[in-house]
Amino acid sequence: MLKLISILLTNGIVLFMLISCHNKTGNSKSTVNLEYENSIDSLNSYKMDISHFINSIEPGETIVEEKQMQGEEFITRENENIKVRFLLKDSCSKDGFLKTEIINNTNDTIIYISNTFLHYRESNNSWIPLVYPDNYVKNDLGYLIPPHESVKIRFFLPSQEEYPKGKYKLQLLFRNASKSIDYYIDKIFVSTKSN
């Protein structure tokens, strides 16, 4: 009973924070905001048409690492119960958002925490984060995915001066409802075109 009250209290605080953040950012015309993702005004400062880049994406493997504290040490293991699929044929891909379907085949509700897009640089064997616009505010936190269900989430692909062809990844972080397990997800993809 105490655990249930603790979870409800935690979820209430998170919901309050999300509502507060929404009220602070929701009316800003200079902010790219996921709630206004179809608004042409919010994306006008990013003139680059990235639809050719998104249309050139070939999805690759999904790597999921589950990290859990056991005693005084972290246990890391692979997890095949969470899947990420790109929905590339969706017309919304033309506005700078990459639509995905996240499938949760675990026995626990998972909560979306964060995302980053990265490009692989062969010259020094490293992953370089794509730069988000200065006025971009991520307002897409708090997706809950119940056990054995899926949710469609659109992630803003930051506009770049150029998108070299090559390897990219969408890096995601999810946490289970009891906050005992973190899921680090890398969805690899390749772009066959450059601009």
TrEMBL record:
Annotated organism of origin: Bacteroides xylanisolvens
Name this protein carries in UniProt: Lipoprotein
